[in-house]
Specification:
Shape: globular
Order of helices and strands: EEEEEEEHEH
Strand content: over 45%
Helix content: 10-25%
Distance between the termini: 14 Å
InterPro entries: PAC4
Strand order of the largest sheet: 3-4-5-8-6-7
Largest sheet: 6 strands, mixed
Keywords: Proteasome
Radius of gyration: 15 Å
Protein name: Proteasome assembly chaperone 4
């Protein structure tokens, strides 16, 4: 959805959802495309337990990243938002609401997100 405000083109928010069974657990993904970035929620139940944001900087090759809310000892949202910001060159908000009990799960979840990025880049 695109509209014009004061002569400037403004993209509306679009939503894209997908799910996948990963290591015997159904993982849900919710993407909201924003103007200049996107919000990604990853989880198995409807909980917003943390929120991180990352964006590119002209001063460093690694995107800037901060945890907006949640437990600072859980770095999954921060790390994922940073890697996605680097890959997409966009501002990225991430909420990662899966248990950190299995590092294989995190890797498979990230690979599924990258696959979706390749299949449907228009949603990111």
């Amino acid at each position: 959805m695109t509209e014009t405000q004061n002569g400037a083109v403004v993209d509306g928010i679009s939503v894209h959802n997908f799910s996948e069974k990963i290591l015997e657990q159904v993982v849900h993904f919710h993407v909201m495309k924003l103007s200049g970035g996107f919000f990604l929620w990853v989880g198995s139940s409807p909980v917003l337990s943390n929120l991180a944001v990352s964006m590119s900087s002209k001063y460093d090759s690694m995107p800037l990243s901060t945890l907006v809310m949640g437990d600072p000892s859980n770095t999954a949202a921060n790390s994922l938002s940073q890697r996605l910001a680097k890959k997409t060159k966009k501002q990225v908000f991430v909420s990662y609401s899966l248990p950190m009990t299995d590092s294989n799960l995190s890797l498979l979840v990230e690979n599924r997100i990258k696959k979706e990025l390749e299949l449907h880049p228009e949603h990111f």
